[in-house]
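Handout, section B. The chain below has 329 residues.
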Amino acid sequence: MKKTAVVILNWNGVKLLEQFLPSVIQYSPEATIYVADNASTDASISFVEANFPTVKIVKNDGNYGFAKGYNEALQHIDAEIYALINSDIEVTENWLLPILETFENEPKTAVIQPKILDFKRKEYFEYAGAAGGFIDKYGFPYCRGRIFETIEKDNGQYNDAREITWASGACFFIRSKVYHELKGFDDDFFAHQEEIDLCWRAKNSNYIIKYNPDSVVYHVGGATLQQGNPKKTFLNFRNSLLMLIKNLPKEKLFPVLFVRLFLDGVAGIHFVFQGKFSHFIAILKAHYSFYTLFSRNYKKRSFFQSQEYYSVKSIVVNYYINNGKIFVK
């Protein structure tokens, strides 16, 4: 069995570690468990050292967010498979085995996501990942089991192991060789959508991303930034645009970007009519940041960009006009 590291990124999350780390230790005998700490100022480190001496700690010297936080920590972790999980994830018995078996049997599979259910409503999928992620032509992400705010109950409808476009960063398995070959997550993203960008780059390098329903975890979600936080709006809009300039096929880059910027404007106006002015400002700031980072990120484009990067032309049209509330493909 491949040498596996379960790595939990932490920042001031002592209460989450206290609640969820025991299940990870109990159900992960096949792996070495690490807490990668982003310079916490709470009792996280001392708590883990006092209560879980088998857990290894990697200390980053600053709060680098999700992307750089993992990039810094994983330089110090020797394993063939990285299992990157949020600190608010509850794992289940034998959760690692189906994933490790897939890696063993499928050499081209580079990234795998388990079934992610809602910790608070365990019969429902969880927003961040559900049963595997996809994007539309304009880079809007959605999942089997979750499209925008519509979240499905798990009735076994997505119990098929299959190829997907992206795996959720909430519980993200990747071959270490591929992670380092692709230079990991993009530090410019800080947090949000960096896993979609990494998966897109992996697909452009002819690797396969998969979903495996035989592995099940439960995710609280929103433990770091709540869904209604304007900073989350800023990061999602800005990072989605950065992802497009890095990964879109050359002939589609500017036509798609033009439409996407227009749709972002529509979203901003929608926030104004809802009275959510802070989110409107967040979109303006996201676009300004995108323009300042455009040149640097354009230079990150790889030699090859896959033409087959999206599953539907517009998930916005499908959802709001065609009443496409559930995944169909």
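Note. The longest strand covers residues 208-219. Compare this with the example in section A.
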